[in-house]
Specification:
The chain is α/β, with parallel strands linked by helices and 135 residues long. It has a single domain, classed as Hypothetical protein TM1506 (Cytidine Deaminase, domain 2, 3-Layer(aba) Sandwich). The chain contains 6 helices and 5 strands. The protein has a 5-stranded mixed β-sheet with strand order 2-1-3-4-5. The longest helix has 12 residues. It is globular. The termini are far apart.
Length: 135
Amino acid sequence: MQEETLRVTDASGKLIFSTGGKWLHPLFALEDYIALHTIDVKTLSLEDKIIGLGAAALIIRMGFVRCRARLLSCRAVPLLEKYRIDFAWDEKVDKLGCMTEDIISVDAPLDESYDELSRRAGRSPAAKAATGEIS
């Protein structure tokens, strides 16, 4: 059984979505789930195992206003603050050992960060075309 790394609950604490996985893949799975369901993410709370700069960009872009990290990168804090996200953490580190924190910036438009992260995750149309998934 895969470890749960991401969970979303409503105001009463009812579990709405959970998944496991590495890197940003659980957040992309959540994005797919949201696209298929009528959900007001502003009313939900998101908890992720690790929130770095890339995760913060995806969380904000999906419209969440509340999140908690078991491990939070200091590099994500300025972005979370910029978008006035209510965030909490169990442990904070200066930087994650992940290249994602170096490829996007707090000042980049969210759509640009999303496009780059999607491409790296193999989700963008260009990445899918390169692997033969779409024509």
